[in-house]
Amino acid sequence: MLAGGPDAVRAVAVALPHVGRRSIVAGSAPATGIEEPARRIRITHPKEEHVAVTLSLTVNGKAVTATVDPRTLLVELIRNQLGLTGTHVGCDTGQCGACTVLLDGRAVKACNLLAAQANGASVTTIEGVAAADGTMHPMQAAFKECHGLQCGFCTPGMVMSAIDLVNRHPKASEAAIREELEGNLCRCTGYHNIVKAVQLGAASMGK
């Protein structure tokens, strides 16, 4: 406290209006007797610009052109823009395999890829494996014959993975089939009939 008590504080405050009363009492007033006013900081955020990319690819044998946000996933393009809803979304983390499609003939999980990564490529979904007259693909027919499904949610991805599997591993053993299908989860069947279906499908495909 300044000598002279509260009256002295009031006198200094009147003489030096820029100095806060608390600073005078605490004895921390600037040596000049003038305290600069506080500065206001204005935070501005840059305006987000909408960016889009145009893709050209082949889906189920047909040329497709689509304009998408660069962050669009391949499964979102397939389902939301192309209306091919046979490709299912299960986990969104690449673990369940329900979204499996063929990209240039190889099985990939469409929830793990950006649509832009398929630019210029050939994509095959479950809707594209049957013959033009509607005849089921041998692997589809094998799943039906062996009852390799129950609820059916995993089946499209399972069939796509199985087609890729037998193309890469002709005459695959039961152990090899089980290992290759580890990335496709089924909550219903216990996999026994799925393995049988893959074996029958491979034989029907001449694999």
Please, could you describe this protein's structure?
By secondary structure, this protein is an alpha+beta fold. The chain has 2 domains: 1-37, no CATH class; 72-204, [2Fe-2S]-binding domain (DNA polymerase, domain 1, Orthogonal Bundle), CATH 1.10.150. The chain is 32% helix and 12% strand. It has 7 helices and 5 strands; from the N terminus they run H-H-E-E-H-E-E-E-H-H-H-H.
What is the name of the CATH topology of the largest domain?
DNA polymerase, domain 1
State Rg. Answer: 34 Å
* Portion of residues within helices: 25-40%
Count structural domains: 2
Largest sheet features: 5 strands, mixed
Low-confidence runs: 11-25
List the helices and strands and how they pair.
Layout (H helix, E strand, L loop, with lengths): L5 H10 L5 H6 L26 E7 L2 E7 L5 H8 L18 E4 L2 E4 L12 E3 L13 H8 L9 H14 L5 H7 L11 H13 L3
Parallel strand pairs: 1-5
Antiparallel strand pairs: 1-2, 3-4, 3-5
Helix pairs in contact: 4-7, 5-7
Short description:
This protein has helices spanning 6-15, 21-26, 74-81, 138-145, 155-168, 174-180, 192-204, and strands at residues 53-59, 62-68, 100-103, 106-109, 122-124. With 207 residues, the protein is an alpha+beta fold. It has 2 domains: 1-37, no CATH class; 72-204, DNA polymerase, domain 1, CATH 1.10.150.120.
Write out key terms for the chains shown.
DNA polymerase, domain 1, 207 residues, alpha+beta, 5 strands
